[in-house]
Amino acid sequence: MKPDLHAEVNKNSAFLDRELSQLMFNRRVLAQAEDKSIPLLERLRYLCIASSNLDEFFEVRVASLLAAGSVDGSLSTHPALVATLSRISNECHALVAHQYEILNQEVLPQLAANGVHLVRHNERNEAQRAWVKEYFDTEVRPLLTPIGLDPAHPFPQVVNKSLNFIVSLSGKDAFGRGTAIAIVKAPRVLPRVIRLPDHLSKSGGVSFCLLSSIIHAHISDLFAGREVIAYSQFRVTRDSDLWVDEDEVKNLRQALKGELLGRQFGASVRLEVAKNCPPELSQFLLDQFGLHQSRLYAVNGPVNLVRLTEMMDHVGGPELRFPPFYPGSALKPGSPDIFAALRENDILLHHPYQSFQTVIDFIRSAAHDPDVVAIKQTIYRTGMNSDLMESLITAARQGKEVTVIVELKARFDEEANINWADKLEQAGAQVVYGVVGLKTHAKVALVIRREDKKLRFYAHLGTGNYHPTTTKFYTDFGLLTCHPGIAQEVNEVFIHLTSLTKPHRLTHLWLAPFALHNEIIKAIRNEARIARAGRPGRIIVKINALVDESVIRALYAASKDGVKIDLIVRGACTLKPGVPGLSENIKVRSIIGRFLEHSRIYYFRNDLAHDVVLASADWMSRNLFRRIEVAFPILDKGLKRRVLAEGLNPYLKDNTNAWELEPDGHYQRRKARGKQASFSAQQHLMDTLGIPHGHLGE
C-alpha cells in the first residue's frame, strides 16, 4: 500500500511538496536494501546510506524549517509550516520504522545465515560474554565518565549525533542524596562495531558486537551500590548548517574555524532512543533538548545505523559484495603526453566508468611541466587526502602561478577545505574564497602553458567534485579541452571570481548567477517555439534535483506546446508529470543503482543542432541564483553522440533501476514486461566502458 504522502497537500497546486519528494528518494534507497538480487553487504550499505541521508535531512532541511518558523519565537503563527513539519514527521517515522524492519527481519538474519553475526547480549554464549566483560573492563570502562545529575552536575553538553546513555537509579548516592538520573557518554575514540576473536565465532564465520551493546550489558558496573532501574541509549541530531555574517567578518576562514567548533552543539532537531526506553526517560530528554514529542524516534536497534558500515571493513566473502569493477581509461596506452593529446582532440571523461586518474595526471603533468606558467582551479569538495591538491602545492613551490578558489562553506567539508587552504597558502599559492554570499560550486581547472612563444589555455570542466573517493562512486562527466573559446572563457571566470569585476560577455559558458537561468529558460522556450511551428521539439535533462518553480513553469508551457520532455531526476522533483492540460508530454524518472547518479546534462534538439550542455548545476533556485555555477557546451559532434549514448539514452531504456514519478508524487519501479529483456544503464556502461574482470594488465 502506498504511503499517502501528499494527502494534505493542495490538490490544485502545480507543484509537489519538496520535502516529501526528498524523503521519497530515501524510499527508493530503502528499496535497494530490500532487493534480494543485491548482495547482502551492499543491502546493508544501502540501509546505512538511507540513515545517513536522513541524518542530513534533519541537520539541514528540518533545521532550516524550524529556524524559519521560530524567528518570532513561535511556530504557532505559521500554520502552513506546522502542517509541513507534521507531514515530514509522519513520513520520517514511517521511514525509520521500515529501516529497522529491513535490518532486523531481512538483512541481519540473512547475514547470519552467511556466517556474519551481529551478536546481541542475550545471544552471546559464556565464552563470548567473558570476552566482552574483559573488553569492557580494559578498553571501555576506563574511558567512561558517568554524570549523576544534581545542581552541581547539570545536564552535560551532548555532541551532535554522538552515542549516549540515560540511566535511572534507585536508592541514594555516596553522599546520601537521591540523584535519580545519570548520563553516560560513549567515548568517541572507540570503534562502534567490535569484531570478536575468530575462535569465539561459529566455524568459518565472523562475529561482531556493538559498543552500545557492550555498555548496555555492563552499565550497572558503573554505579556501585545503586540499582539501575532503567536505561537507554540516545542520540540527538542538531542543526549543522554553519552561518557567518560574511558582510561583517574580515577573514572568512578564521570565522568559519570558530563556527566549526560550535556546529556540534547547534539547536536540537531530533531525539533517538531505544524502543524500550521508559516514557519518563524519553520525556526527560525531550525536555532537556527542548523538543516536541513528534521529534522523538524510538528505534528497534542501534540509534546510529550508519556505524554498521564498519562491519564491511572486516568481512570478506566476494559473494556478499558487488563484483569488482575496474574503470577504463580515456587515453590509450602509448598515447602522447596529455597536452599533445588535447591539441589533437577534446577528451570526454565519464566517471566512474572511466578513471578520474586522467584528471589527476592532467594537473600533475602541469605541476612538473617547465612550460606551464600558471594553474587555476576551483575546489568544492576534495577530501582530506588528495593527490590533486598535493600537485597544486608542488606547482606553487616550483614557482608557478597557482590560484585556487576554495569554497570554505561546502557543507560538511569545511574543515578539510580550511586545512587545504592553509597548506596552499604556505606553499605560495594565491587562495581566495569565492564571492561573499555565494557558494562557488563550479568545477573548473585551467592550465596556461607557453608554446611557440605564445600562451595556450587548457581546461577541465566537470559536473562533479575533485574528490578522489566520490569519483569512484558518483557518475559524472568531465571535459578536457584546449578549445580557444571555451578555455579562454574559463580564464575569464577565474578573473571574475578573484577580481570581483563583472565578467565579460561569455559566448560558450553559461555562468550563474548571471546567465545560467536565462539561458535555460531561453533554450526551453526555443523548443516550444519549434514545436508550435510544427517541427519536433525535444528536451532531455539529467540532474539531481528539480525544484525551481520558474524553470518548472517553462517546462509546463513547453509541454502544452507539444515538446516531448524526459527528465531524469535522481532526488527531489516538485514538477508534476503527466497531468492533462499541464504536463502530459513530460515524463520523470529516477535511477537508483550501484553508483550515485550525479551528472548534470541538458539536451535540446534545436532543429537537429542537438545542443548538449554539461553543468555543475541542478535546477534549483540556490544553484541558479545563489551559487557560482558553470554550464559548458559539448561542441564536437562525436562527443555529443557519446553523451547521448552514455549519459541519457541508456537511462531512458532502464527497466531495472528506474523509478517513474506519478502525478501524485509517488514513484513506481519500472520492470521488464513480457518478453522484454532486463536492462540496467549502469551495468551496460560498466560492461562497455570498464575493464572486464580478469583483464587487468592484458
Poorly predicted regions: 1-10, 244-250
Based on helices, strands and strand pairing, what is the structural class? alpha/beta
Distance between the termini: 51 Å
* Sheet with most strands: 10 strands, mixed
Strand proportion: 15-25%
**Helical amount among residues, as a percent range?**
25-40%
* Total number of helices: 18
Mean pLDDT: 89
Strand runs, count: 27
Radius of gyration: 27 Å
* Apparent shape: globular
Structure at a glance:
InterPro entries: PP_kinase (IPR003414), PP_kinase_C_1 (IPR041108), PP_kinase_middle (IPR024953), PP_kinase_middle_dom_sf (IPR036830), PPK_C_dom2 (IPR025200), PPK_N_dom (IPR025198), PPK_N_dom_sf (IPR036832). The protein is α/β, with parallel strands linked by helices and 698 residues long. It is 36% helix and 20% strand.
What does this structure look like?
One of its GO terms (molecular function) is polyphosphate kinase activity. Its EC number is 2.7.4.1. This protein is an alpha/beta fold and 698 residues long. It is built from 18 helices and 27 strands. The strands form 4 sheets. Strands 14, 18, 19, 20, 21, 23, 24, 25, 26 and 27 form a 10-stranded mixed β-sheet that branches. A hairpin with a 2-residue loop joins strand 15 and strand 16. The chain starts with 17 loop residues before the first helix and ends in a 9-residue tail after the last helix. The N terminus is likely disordered.
